[in-house]
C-alpha cells in the first residue's frame, strides 16, 4: 500500500478507535528491572547472607510492583524482563516507545566508593538532554495529543512543521513535570512510610530517561555496599516495603494526572465540538530580547529557540520568535519562550503587509572590519551600501517597504549563501 495512504488510514483508525474505546483505555506502564543476565549491576558479598546483586533486588521489587498493579484493572503492565536476562538499554526504551506507554519506571540499586553512603534517590530527565529527547519524541509520535485544546490547535501531526515542533516541546515539558511529580511521590513514601533517608529527586542524563517518549523515572532503591541498607534490600520485608511505596506513588500519580486531564479511564461525555478558531487581524511575534549585540542562529543567548526573526530598529537588535495570526498559537509561542528562559517575553502585533510611511527596510548583510573588494558578499551583490560608525563598518543591501518583502529578500540572500543577515528598519 502507498505509504501516504497507509498513514491517512492509520490516523483515521486512531481517531476512530480513540473515540470508541476512550472509556476503556488502560494506563500502560513499563516496569524496568535494572541490569540482569551477565550484567549483575552493583554487588557485594556479606558473611551472613552471601552475595547481594543489584539485578536480583531490582527484579524482585519490580515483580512485586507489577503484581500489585495488575490487580487494578485500570493498569496494563509491561515488563522489560521477568527473568534473569539482559535486554539492552535500547531494547528497553524501544519496547516502551512501541507500546506507547504512559509511564516508564526503572528500578535500580546504588553503590558508592564511600562505604557510608546510604539512602534513596530518583532521577528524571536531565536538563541538557532536551535536543536528543526531542528527536526521539519526533520519531515516536505519529500522532500527538496533548489535550483537547492543543489537538484543535495543531490538528494533524507533521514533524517538520513549526507548530508540531512547538507542540512537541510543550509535550516534553509536560513529561518532565510529570516525571518530577512521580519522583517526589516515590521519595515521599520512602521517607514518610518506610522511615528511610531520601537523598532527593535529581535530573541526570541517562539513556532510559533520554530515549523515552513518555514521563520516565529511575529509582535508586538503596546502596548495595552499605551493610545495613544492603540487608534491607535483600530481605523480603525490605523489597515489599519498597514495592508498596512505588506502587502507592504510581496510584497517586495517576490520580493527579486524571484530575488534570479530566480522567482517561472513567467514562467521559464527549465535549461538544467547539467552533473553529478564527484568525486575528494582526500577526503576532514574541519579542524575546532587545540587545545592542548581534546573535547568529544557534547562539546560546537564543536558548535553543529556532524560527527567530532579528530586526534592527534604532540601533538595537530585537529578536522575535514565531509568527502566527491564531490567538491560541500565540499563547503557546509565548509560553514556549518563557519556558525557554525569556521571562520578560511578550507578544507584539504586526499589521500584515503594512507599508512603512517614513523610511524603509534594508538588509544588514555584514558588520565588522572593512570588506575586501574580493569578498564573497561584494562579489555576489551589486549595490551594497557601506556606512562607518565608531570604527565599525555596516554593509546593507536593498530597499523594501513591508516586513514581508524584507523577509523575502532575506531568504533570497540566504539562498545565495549570505547567511545571518538582519532586517533593519531605517527612518528617513
Ligand atoms: Zn543500576
UniProtKB/TrEMBL annotation:
It holds the Pfam family Amidase_3. PANTHER family: N-ACETYLMURAMOYL-L-ALANINE AMIDASE, N-ACETYLMURAMOYL-L-ALANINE AMIDASE AMIC. This is N-acetylmuramoyl-L-alanine amidase. Gene3D superfamilies: Zn-dependent exopeptidases (3.40.630.40). It is an enzyme of class 3 (hydrolase). InterPro entries: MurNAc-LAA_cat, N-acetylmuramoyl_amidase_3. GO terms for biological process: peptidoglycan catabolic process. It comes from Chryseobacterium angstadtii. It catalyses: Hydrolyzes the link between N-acetylmuramoyl residues and L-amino acid residues in certain cell-wall glycopeptides. Keywords: Hydrolase.
Amino acid at each position: 500500500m502507498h505509504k501516504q495512504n497507509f498513514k491517512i488510514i492509520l490516523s483515521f483508525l486512531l481517531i476512530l478507535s480513540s473515540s470508541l474505546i476512550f472509556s476503556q483505555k488502560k494506563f500502560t506502564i513499563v516496569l524496568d528491572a535494572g541490569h540482569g543476565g551477565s550484567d549483575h549491576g552493583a554487588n557485594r558479598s556479606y558473611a551472613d547472607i552471601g552475595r547481594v546483586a543489584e539485578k536480583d533486588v531490582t527484579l524482585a521489587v519490580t515483580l512485586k510492583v507489577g503484581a500489585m498493579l495488575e490487580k487494578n484493572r485500570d493498569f496494563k503492565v509491561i515488563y522489560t524482563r521477568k527473568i534473569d536476562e539482559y535486554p539492552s538499554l535500547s531494547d528497553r526504551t524501544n519496547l516502551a516507545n512501541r507500546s506507547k506507554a504512559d509511564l516508564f519506571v526503572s528500578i535500580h540499586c546504588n553503590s558508592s566508593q564511600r562505604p557510608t553512603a546510604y539512602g534513596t534517590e530518583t532521577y528524571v530527565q536531565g536538563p541538557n538532554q532536551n535536543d536528543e529527547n526531542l528527536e526521539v519524541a519526533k520519531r515516536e509520535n505519529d500522532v500527538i495529543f496533548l489535550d483537547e485544546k492543543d489537538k484543535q490547535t495543531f490538528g494533524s501531526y507533521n514533524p517538520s512543521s513549526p507548530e508540531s515542533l512547538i507542540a512537541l516541546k510543550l509535550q516534553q515539558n509536560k513529561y518532565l513535570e510529570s516525571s518530577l511529580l512521580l519522583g517526589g511521590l516515590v521519595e515521599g513514601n520512602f521517607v514518610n512510610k518506610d522511615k528511610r533517608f531520601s537523598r532527593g529527586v535529581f535530573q541526570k542524563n541517562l539513556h532510559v530517561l533520554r530515549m523515552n517518549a513518555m514521563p520516565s523515572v529511575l529509582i535508586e532503591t538503596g546502596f548495595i555496599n552499605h551493610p545495613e541498607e544492603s540487608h534491607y534490600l535483600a530481605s523480603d520485608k525490605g523489597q515489599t516495603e519498597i514495592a508498596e511505596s512505588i506502587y502507592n506513588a504510581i496510584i497517586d500519580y495517576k490520580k493527579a494526572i486524571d484530575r488534570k486531564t479530566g480522567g482517561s479511564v472513567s467514562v467521559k461525555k464527549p465535549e461538544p465540538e467547539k467552533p473553529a478558531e478564527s484568525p486575528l487581524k494582526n500577526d503576532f511575534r514574541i519579542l524575546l530580547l532587545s540587545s545592542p549585540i548581534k546573535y547568529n542562529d544557534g547562539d546560546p543567548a537564543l536558548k535553543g529557540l529556532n524560527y527567530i526573526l532579528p530586526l534592527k530598529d534604532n540601533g538595537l537588535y530585537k529578536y522575535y520568535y514565531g509568527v502566527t495570526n491564531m490567538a491560541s498559537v500565540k499563547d503557546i509561542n509565548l509560553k514556549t519562550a518563557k519556558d525557554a528562559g525569556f521571562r520578560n517575553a511578550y507578544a507584539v502585533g504586526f499589521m500584515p503587509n503594512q507599508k512603512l510611511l517614513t523610511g524603509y527596510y534594508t538588509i544588514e548583510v555584514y558588520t565588522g572590519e572593512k570588506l575586501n573588494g574580493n569578498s564573497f558578499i561584494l562579489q555576489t551583490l551589486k549595490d551594497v551600501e557601506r556606512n562607518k560608525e565608531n570604527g565599525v563598518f555596516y554593509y546593507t543591501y536593498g530597499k523594501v517597504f513591508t516586513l514581508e518583502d524584507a523577509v523575502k529578500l532575506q531568504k533570497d540572500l540566504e539562498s545565495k549563501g549570505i547567511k545571518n543577515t538582519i532586517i533593519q528598519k531605517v527612518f528617513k
